[in-house]
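Q: Is it fine to ask for two folds in a single conversation?
A: Yes, each is treated on its own. Send the first.
Q: Here.
A: Result:
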Amino acid sequence: MRPGTSVWRRSLTRLAVVTLFTVTTVAQDNDDFMGTVDAAPWPWETRKDEVWHAQQAFLTDLREPMRNGMNVQTALEAWFKAEAANPTMTKEEKIAILEAGQATIAAAEALPQADWPDNPSGVELKFLESLSLRDYEDIACRIVEFEADELTQYGVVLYPKRDDKFPLILYLHGAAYGVPTHSLPWLAELSRTGYVIAAPALRGENLFASWYTKKPEYVCEGEIENLKGEVNDALAMVDGACKLPQVKPGKFGIIGHSFGAGVGLLTLARAGDQVACMVSYDAWFTNPFRYYFDRLSNGYNNWLSWEEYIDLPIEEQLPGLMERSIVHNAGDIQAALLLFIGGGYSGIFHDTHEHLIEQLKKFKKNYTYEIVPDGGHNFVLYYGSRPALYAYEIQTTWLDKYLPPARAPAAAEQDAPAEGALQE
């Protein structure tokens, strides 16, 4: 753990992110996400004053430029200056600040593209111990340790116990509690078809999200960074996994859900032509500018740590959003992309996916967008449900096309099971 890292703060941050993905399926209308309506108040409500109306005019002008990744730094500085004004400041003074900031929005230019760091290299996976999965005696399940940004991280690697080499799939879980233990049988089933599965926990998380009878207490160092450092964790896991003797040389695939799909999409962009394909389930934070705006305007709360983020200097906030936005970096995607989203809810996830689709079309990317009938945000985790089975069938066809598994030979031709060697 980094010096000064508070276990209490990390727990609260993790709880906030998990709560986010529990409540985030609240329905919203695409054209009314500012969270305010200029209407006559009920008798028990406080009537909106001139400052409030000035704020709404400001937000109306800010909405689209913010969504589109424009450099609205001066406008935001004015907004927060008015928000933090001394109680002695008059309404007229606050309105003047807001109007001066609002006047700069129209001339805002596009922010520069993300300045991403070099991808991790030279990573080695260290074997710690094996887990036994009921009904999957033919699948090795091994806990590994690795380094990312000088932080000690943990993950799980699964692969068939036969003498062969298999394509690699990076699996990135949702929320922020680690790899869900209930996903291990599903990952083992996928591995059995002929893949190595590399499933990292991400910085600031426990290795596992729920209790496992032999669960070791491995905790990743660092803090949750909302799709910044976590991308390096994913890329480091891939760099280490590609050196395993079980992994077939060549391109790898990515599967991610929610928070993990957000990480996966940025991993996809940064890894370039190393990736064969990605399957994304209900990705979070595809356009963080939109999430930021929702919180600024007292709209729906789909970013629970926003207050912490706005403690950063304004000049760091906008580049930080750009670094986390796959919508504004879609041109860097070079692999086939399968996007799923549950059709049983609406709101910011759907809105920002539509914005991503706009960009994928603009750059002529190879993608498929599937709205899953009756699917909620977490439909993929209900493995036997109709929405999940609907998506799995499409996923299987997609992987067969873009990252075919190393299928097992006939039983009589199989060699004796081989554990393979990780670095001890």
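Q: Second one now.
A: Result:
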Amino acid sequence: MKPSLLYISYYFPPIKSIAVKRNYFLAKGLRNYFGDVQVLTTSNYKSLDQEAMPLDGLSVKYLATFDYRTILAKFRRKKSTHFSEEKKSGWIVQLFIRLNESFPFNLLIGEGGIIYILHGLIEGIRILKKKDKKIIITSFRPFSNVCIGYLLKIRYPKADWVVSFHDFPIENLRKNVILKKLQFWVWKKFLSKCNKAFTVSNGITHLIQAMNPNVITIMNGIIPRKSVNQNSKKFRIVYTGSIYLGFRDPTLLFRSFSEMVQNKMVDKNKVELIYAGKDNTIWNKMISSFSLNEVSLVLNDLPTHEALALQESAHLNVLLTWATHEQKGILTGKLFEYLGCGNPVLAIINGTNDQEITSLFDEIGCGKVVSSDDLGADDHIKTFIKQLYQDWENGKSFPSYYPNLKEYSWEHQVERLAEFVLHP
């Protein structure tokens, strides 16, 4: 008889967020390996931007929640899961963000909050007490999910508790916490109780290993889609996503592309630089400073199906990420969305070269990786774009890399996860 699984995740449908998709596809896929999968998530979905996704037999319980999102929803006209960088730039907001990610403040004001944690503990006990074999997966972020898992592990010491990470909790570059030594102590204490952990990239796995050695990498999966850029009248460069000031930085792209337009390496009447996301105010200011308004189209944050369609129409999708010598492997969910449509990808890393990303691109054959620290980074970008542009003018398509994506499917990732969770 297959065991049951308790999956705890604040970010879950119908909330609209890239963070939702990883938890959704993992929980949904694990149904094939467990007798049933029961999900605990937040009642705050009522106050956040929503996007329906079929639950396909998943049992979902919504936990009572009173956190900062609950409060902000009372004062906002528009439902929104994420805030623009412009709204997050003030020092008061920045301090609040650091408190929100730091123990013990995250128990009170962080996503979930104390009511969510207590309700999660009660529901978890109700579900697990009926099970002979108790298996729990908790997703970070936020911390409240992990806190529920920790308390359930104390209640049921023989339970198998697995923690999922798509971020590292303490980031030196972002300086996202206060009382850093305390945060390390808390995380080491929590993770000393968990049986296993898995992360989204080898870079994060390496960092988590210092706290729990039984950790593996389970990447995000890919859903193959169809490219529709063959008959476009303009060469499209597309970015759909967020800008994180000082981290995801499009300056290198703008500088390189602006020089290409000015030097007539591309025909300005035949190119289009398109942005869709919540940070359109910042994007507009930046393209103006590089005199790219004439070739730019700036859109608001789009529903997922429209954002995916825009990626499918692109001749080049742009990925923005960051890396330092201490922390690498920031493989965003956006990358795997891009790979699904089969169009070329230009990854621009703010900081040092990230060998994990470079190796992934080389293995799949999906495009080009350039870091801001690279010698001649601007020239690398211009050469890559020029080649794609000339191929487009000549009616030549980018070589298909679909055959190289098999092991990156959600089915393959879920199979590896199930093997890891169910066996010693």
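Q: Anything structural to flag on that second result?
A: Two points. The longest helix spans residues 377-393. The radius of gyration is 22 Å.
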